[in-house]
Amino acid sequence: MTVTVRFAPSPTGHIHIGNSRPALFNWLFSRKEGGRFVLRFDDTDLERSKQEYAESIEKDLRWLGIIPDFIERQSRRVASYDVASQKLKDAGLLYPCYETPEELDRRRSRQRSLGRPPVYDRAGLKQTAEERAAFEAEGRRPHWRFILPNHDADPFETKRTDVTWNDLCRGEQSVDLSSMSDPVLIRADGTYLYTLPSIVDDIDMGITHVIRGEDHVANTGVQIAIFEALGAAAPIFGHHNLLTTRDGEGLSKRKGALSIGSLREAGLEPMSVASLAVLTGTSQAVEPVQDMDALIGKFDLASISRSSAKFDPEELKNLNARLVHELPYEAVSDRLADLGIEAGADFWETVRGNCETVNDAADFWQIVTGPVVSRIEDEDREFVAKTRNFLPDGEITPETWSAWTSALKSETGRKGRGLFMPLRRVLTGMDHGPDMKAMLPLIGRRNILDRLP
Ligand code: GLU
User: Fold this and answer.
1) What is the 3-state secondary structure (H, E, C) of 94-145?
2) 145 lies in a domain?
3) Atom of ligand 1 minimally distant from the CA of 212
4) Which of 119, 142, 342, 426 is the right S-S partner for 96, CB 3.0 to 4.6 Å?
5) For the packed helices 17-32 and 270-279, what is the interaxial angle rounded to 10 degrees?
6) Residue at 339 is within a domain
7) Within 13 Å and on the Cβ side, how many CA atoms surround 302?
């Protein structure tokens, strides 16, 4: 069977670096296994789901290098969910319940005050046809619960029922169905909660592996039971740890600063975001990885640790800078052109070591082409006045810097910082930056002479 995975976001917000992890894990897994990657929008919540979010998620994934083999949305597949729910009803596995949310709340508080777990008591299952008709006559509509297979003949006599699976990230896992309420699959207004559509889709799309956050571990036992009730084998599951800040704070969808869109706008490289997202919270070192193929080589679900994946947003800047320092010219030439930089590999190779993002190259291009606000400290004024006369004749080459500074050293006796810094300041307006030996030919004779007093 072809390995098929899915990333199944609800399009109710923009994705951030935390939600990019299941997307990347599924993507890397599908590429490693020569399989398929499905992007499935879980948009059964029609009020909160928005087309603009679906579009932004697709755009963000593409930027990260994830190109789905297939895209689907649940709102188009309701007919299939109706068929599946009818099948469960016919098998007596889905039963109507007429309690209002307030009644359920009151019941749960009562159970808690008696020290009992707030598990639904299957009262709906006891109701007679007349009682149901009476509720209907009052205008009540039922919600529908799936009866968990945690009992023998009598559903009111539950017994310990462990559902186990071998999790790709967490190893042997087990959930006891006797401690759980029968899940509501259909709301009173007839719409589906996420559970049943997700399972029906996983079956119909031939999903072989479900890789998702560990916040879904508790759902997995119930889902395996529903797969079986529908006559299907459950996929293999892998639940990864969740990304948090250093102080353990979770990243909600509203954390704007860490949205993939804002990281893109800040000029970060997709591969530094992907490297951090995939390697944080694993037993591997978090380091910049140049391309997806190399990341596929490093990716290993079993190396994900059990504790949360803690990260400091500052790390991302550092990782990005390290990645940019190694980027070859061919990888950035189009983007340099977009920034209005009409330079070749020599310019990029000179400045990349001083760039935190590729966009920073624009500042160095400004220094190369000018105009530059030259800086001369008072104590250097006399020295700088002499420099023009010692600039070697002819073409400015990488050798010019050392010939020029040697001549100035002999003339003035200055050396080290006292010799180099005044020249850097007068030519670039800054007291740090790329190697002057390589900058000089880029700046060129005309600009050099213009900037010297
Ligand atoms: N829409 C669900 C979520 O975003 C999908 C969970 C799953 O992968 O099954 O949490």
Assistant:
1) EEEECCCHHHHHHHHHHHHHCCCCCCCCCHHHHCCHHHHHHHHHCCCCCEEE
2) no
3) 8
4) 142
5) 90
6) yes
7) 3
**267 close to 336: Cβ distance less than 8 angstroms:** no
Together in a domain, 295 and 351: no
Residue 436 Cα to ligand 1 middle (Å)? 53
Distances (CA, A) of 124 to 40, 143, 144, 178, 271: 33, 10, 9, 17, 52
CA of 331 to the centre of ligand 1 (A): 34
Size of the chain, expressed as the number of residues it contains: 453
Pairing of strands 184-186, 143-146: antiparallel
Ligand 1 mean position to 211 CA, how many Å? 9
User: What spacing in Å lies between the alpha carbon of 9 and ligand 1's midpoint?
Assistant: 6
* Residue 401 domain-assigned (yes or no): yes
pLDDT in tens, 335-364: 999 999 999 999 999 999 999 999 999 999
* Average pLDDT for 241-269: 83
Whether 429 and 305 map to the same domain: the answer is no
Mutate which of 5, 24, 48, 216 for ligand 1? The one with the most ligand atoms within 8 Å of its CB, which is 216
Q: Find out whether 351 and 367 touch, Cβ atoms under 8 Å.
A: no
Looking at the DSSP bridge assignments, the partners of residue 145 are 95, 184
Beta-bridge partners for 4: 36
Domain count, the chain: 4
Q: What residues make up the domain containing 344?
A: 329-364
The average confidence (pLDDT) of the chain is 95
Index of the ligand 1 atom closest to the CA of residue 42: 1
399 φ/ψ angles, rounded to the nearest 5 degrees? -85, -20
Which parts are annotated binding residues for ATP? Answer: 253
- Neighbour-count burial of 359, counting CB atoms closer than 10 A to its CB (0-12 exposed, 13-18 middle, 19+ buried): middle
Protein residue with its CA nearest to atom 3 in ligand 1? 9
Q: Would you state the torsion angle of the CA atoms of residues 444, 445, 449, 450, taken in this order, to the nearest 10 degrees?
A: -50
Do 44 and 175 lie in a common domain?
yes
CB-based pocket (< 6 A), ligand 1: 8-10, 42, 194, 198, 210, 212, 216
pTM of the model: 0.92
Query: Measuring CA to CA, how many Å separate 240 from each of 168, 199, 244, 309?
Result: 9, 19, 13, 9
pLDDT value of residue 128: 96
Substitution candidate for ligand 1 out of 21, 26, 42 with most atoms within 8 A of CB: 42
- Pair (279, 390) in one structural domain: no
Residue 110: Cβ within 10 Å count: 11
Q: How far is the CA of 413 from the centre of ligand 1 (A)?
A: 70
**107-136 mean pLDDT:** 95
